[in-house]
Design goal:
Length: 200
């Protein structure tokens, strides 16, 4: 077996074995000598064509390039999971939706829309998943933190930008009230939503 490996085979192997998206810079530098940007574009185009009719497809996200399971295959493979996927409460999903569609927002903004206090557990759950982060502070009394979604959030949903966000009712396949018409509630709802309704 030859020790030489073609750039497209090397990049394909890297994309298939890495758990995080690869940047174009990292893929260019993976080859010796490093690939030019034009050559890398050609390689990625070849890989996209090679995999276009398979259950895995090469996609570009805000974080870089990665292989992603097509939705129909993802739904069927879910039955093979031995462990039950974590479930997110309605409070978590509503908070995520508000941040995603209204960002940047403060906790006060979120509480004003939902009509109830936002618990630290809700915010921590979204931070632990890597979906939200503090991007600054509002120039008002107390300098409250401004929250926004992350590149990881977009990548997990297979999106390149916030403009590609699906309609609000499709986020996590949870039917949420329109944010403007959302009625206040007295307490956090116990209703939960499977996390596997969102791409991993």
């Amino acid at each position: 077996m030859t020790d030489k490996i073609s750039p497209d085979a090397l990049i394909e192997a890297a994309l298939l074995t890495q758990t995080e998206p690869l940047t174009e810079k990292s893929m260019r530098e993976l080859c010796v000598p490093p690939l030019s940007q034009d050559k890398l574009i050609d390689v990625l185009a070849q890989l996209k064509t090679r995999w276009q009719d398979r259950a895995l497809q090469l996609v570009h996200t805000q974080e870089g390039w990665r292989f992603q399971i097509v939705q129909t295959a993802f739904e069927r493979l879910g039955s093979l999971q031995e462990q039950r996927a974590p479930r997110y409460s309605r409070a978590v999903m509503e908070t995520l939706a508000i941040i995603a569609y209204q960002q940047p927002v403060t906790r006060g903004d979120i509480e004003g829309i939902r009509g109830v206090a936002v618990s630290q557990n809700v915010m921590q759950t979204l931070q632990d998943r890597g979906w939200i982060e503090v991007i600054g502070h509002r120039d008002t009394l107390g300098k409250p933190a401004l929250w926004a979604t992350t590149a990881t959030f977009l990548s997990d949903l297979g999106l390149n930008s916030l403009e590609e966000l699906p309609p609000l009712t499709e986020l996590g396949e949870l039917v949420l009230p329109d944010l403007i018409e959302m009625q206040p509630t007295d307490e956090e709802e116990p209703e939960t939503v499977p996390s596997d309704t969102l791409p991993n």
